[in-house]
Amino acid sequence: MQTEQRVRSVLDDIATLTCEPTSNESLFESGLLDSFALPDLIAGIEKEFSLSIPDSELIPRKFDSIDKIVDYLRSREV
After folding, report:
1. Longest Cα separation, the chain
2. Which of 21, 51, 60, 69 could serve as a FRET partner for 2 with CA atoms 20 to 30 Å apart?
3. Residue by residue, what is the 3-state secondary structure of 7-69?
4. d(CA 65, CA 70)
5. Cβ contacts of residue 66 below 8 Å, gap of 6+?
6. pTM to 2 decimal places
7. CATH 1.10.1200.10 applies to domain 3-75
8. What pLDDT, on a 0 to 100 scale, did the predictor assign at position 78?
9. What is the pLDDT of residues 2-52, one digit of tens each?
């Protein structure tokens, strides 16, 4: 499964709404996620990709869209 599909799977598990965001759509501005969902998103990504995201990188703008999440994961060489 491709990275984007795996990220979408994590989002499906934690999203507060049911929708298919575009890959560059803000997950927070669209209402798909709220600030309380960020820890759940991070935990889901860590579990799905078997990695640990340091607290210093828990910046919402890094995880604001599917594209940004995929870029982050690629920078971590997942």
Report:
1. 30
2. 60
3. HHHHHHHHCCCCCCCCCCCCCCCCCCCCHHHHHHHHHHHHHHHCCCCCHHHCCHHHHCCHHHH
4. 9
5. 4, 7, 8, 11, 21, 22, 23, 24, 25, 27
6. 0.88
7. yes
8. 53
9. 999 999 999 988 886 677 888 999 998 888 888 788 899 999 999 999 999
